[in-house]
From TrEMBL:
Top-level taxon of origin: Eukaryota
Protein name: F-box domain-containing protein
Length: 237
């Protein structure tokens, strides 16, 4: 005998309730209105049941943060993994926060982060890259800072010309707090000019543990720059 669908899965509950056998309709006492009423009552019962048991029906994996992260890391490392994880974050409330943490933990460019400024402020061009057409107000930083708090590793490559240099001047002058990437632990900075290297100072927070610098041209003040790094960070590599 085939067992009934499990009541511990949300999708199965509605399916199970919908497939419950109904006594044959008697034309003399059943009407179209009554059938609609029955279906409506059934849906209401299912919704009430799900609401009352939502916590108990959460997958066990969500109750263990380490296991959840391992699953999400496996997804993001698979083919088209970032797209799949982004879809999961949009469609499943239970997975939203841990999925976003994994998606934003490691960035290979500043573009996704800076694109979180309101569209009305953005200026997009192939060269010199993503920039700002207006000065951001305090409220304009809120979304960027919320996601920046998830970033643990980021890479900047000046040669890509995908970010306008002027945007770093805006960050330096108007940022609401000293470090917009407060939990950054790894920074890779590839500069072609002395000015490009100097921009990295904005992201040398005290918690930084790993710093990789690639310099396209000779930088005469490299000694002073390295001393600054040692004073401001807790580098281990």
């Amino acid at each position: 005998m085939t067992p009934p669908p499990s009541l511990y899965r949300r999708s199965s509950i509605i399916e199970y309730l919908s497939n419950l056998p109904i006594r044959p309709r008697l034309p003399s006492i059943r009407s179209r209105t009554s059938r609609k009423s029955t279906a409506s009552s059934l849906n209401s019962f299912a919704a009430a049941f799900l609401a009352a048991n939502e916590q108990s029906m959460l997958p066990a994996i969500l109750r263990n943060a380490d296991v959840t992260n391992k699953l999400l890391e496996y997804i993001v490392d698979s083919p088209n993994g970032r797209r799949s994880l982004a879809r999961l974050a949009r469609t499943c409330k239970a997975f939203k926060e841990p999925a976003l943490n994994v998606l934003w933990r490691e960035l290979d460019s500043f573009v996704p982060l800076l694109a979180l400024f309101p569209n009305a402020l953005m200026k997009r061009s192939r060269r010199p890259g993503l920039g700002l057409s207006k000065t951001p107000e305090p409220a304009d930083w809120e979304r960027l800072l919320a996601y920046a708090d998830r970033v643990r590793s980021i890479t900047y490559n000046e040669a890509y010309n995908n970010v306008a240099p002027t945007i770093f001047a805006v960050i330096e002058e108007l940022r609401p707090k000293q470090f917009i990437l407060p939990k950054l632990t790894a920074l890779t900075w590839k500069a072609e000019t002395a000015a490009g290297l100097e921009r990295s100072r904005l992201f040398l927070n005290p918690g930084l543990q790993s710093l990789t610098i690639e310099m396209g041209n000779k930088y005469t003040k490299m000694g002073d720059f390295l001393n600054y790094i040692m004073e401001k960070t807790a580098l281990t590599t």
